[in-house]
TrEMBL record:
InterPro entries: ASCH_domain, PUA-like_sf. Coiled coil: none annotated. This is 2-oxoglutarate dehydrogenase E1. Pfam families: ASCH. Residues 4-61 form the ASCH domain. It comes from Paenibacillus odorifer. It comes from the Bacteria. Signal peptide: none annotated. Transmembrane segments: none annotated.
Length: 137
């Protein structure tokens, strides 16, 4: 299965269904099943800011108990859209989504669908870019 490593708290926000777009500086042509891997780094500054703090707290999380170094969810990568001044992404996204990503011009919004958290995270080292995990879960 292909996976992507995402820094915390963004990986958990995706796993919880609070974030449907992952914003990246690069495009991908890949579509299909995707594992969400929580990297080893936690951006504690963001965890203490709103709306991050209250959304994480709603699910029982703080910067001190976010999972790291594990595949925590699976879903589908359904699309990849370039951010341009002609398209107002706020028409596509709901809730805190705009606050949870970097929608600067020239970046890419990866649309994630059908994301389900794993009941037992799978320890994994993670890598840059899209990478393959040997087990299918």
């Amino acid at each position: 299965m292909r996976c992507i490593t995402i820094r915390q708290p963004w990986a958990t926000l995706i796993a919880l269904g609070e974030k449907e777009f992952e914003t990246r500086s690069w495009r991908t042509a890949y579509r299909g099943e995707l594992g969400i891997h929580a990297g080893m780094r936690i951006d504690k500054k963001f965890c203490e800011q709103e709306p991050y703090k209250s959304v994480l707290a709603k699910h029982g999380y703080t910067a001190n108990n976010l999972p790291t170094g594990a595949i925590i969810a699976t879903g589908q990568l359904a699309g990849c859209y370039v951010v341009t001044p002609e398209v107002d992404l706020r028409e596509w996204i709901n809730g805190n989504e705009y606050d949870f990503g970097d929608y600067s011009e020239g970046r890419f919004a990866w649309k994630l669908e059908g994301v389900h958290p794993l009941s037992h995270p799978i320890p994994a080292k993670g890598r840059l870019s899209l990478w393959e995990h040997s087990n299918h879960f």
